[in-house]
Design a protein that fits this description.
Blueprint (H helix, E strand, L loop, with lengths): L1 H44 L3 E4 L9 E6 L13 E4 L8 E6 L3 E7 L6 E8 L2
Antiparallel strand pairs: 1-3, 2-4, 4-5, 5-6
């Protein structure tokens, strides 16, 4: 009986961690989709589209950014935006999303608006 309870406890703990990792990957997917959609809208509407970085881009976890010239990730400042140009390019930005389970870093390509670098770190 004790062994069964122990196995059940380990399985429950593993499932909770797995759910957190899924939530983290879902946040990254949302940011990637938002970036591609914003670039597409900028080109189609022929106007600059901006995303408010301080608002967290609609994610549930914590969002940090690293722009060209920044050495480390930092919290977005008030009024800081990510611009998508009607010429079909966006500002090169690295985004770090984190929650209680881990973090994902995404590096966005200015020509495609797609994440070209993705690093996932999950806490053990």
């Amino acid at each position: 009986m004790a062994i069964a309870v122990l196995i059940l406890g380990v399985a429950t703990f593993s499932m909770a961690g797995l759910q957190g990792e899924v939530k983290l990957k879902r946040m990254a997917s949302q940011v990637e989709s938002l970036a591609r959609e914003s670039l597409l809208q900028a080109v189609m509407k022929q106007r600059v589209i901006t995303l408010d970085l301080q608002g967290g881009l609609g994610t549930e976890g914590r969002l940090q950014v690293r722009r060209v010239g920044d050495k480390t990730f930092r919290q977005p400042v008030r009024g800081e935006v990510w611009e998508f140009s009607p010429s079909g390019i966006c500002e090169p930005v690295d985004v770090r999303l984190s929650n209680e389970v881990g973090e994902i870093e995404l590096g966005f390509d200015p020509l495609t608006g797609c994440a070209v670098r993705k690093e996932v770190r999950v806490k053990s």
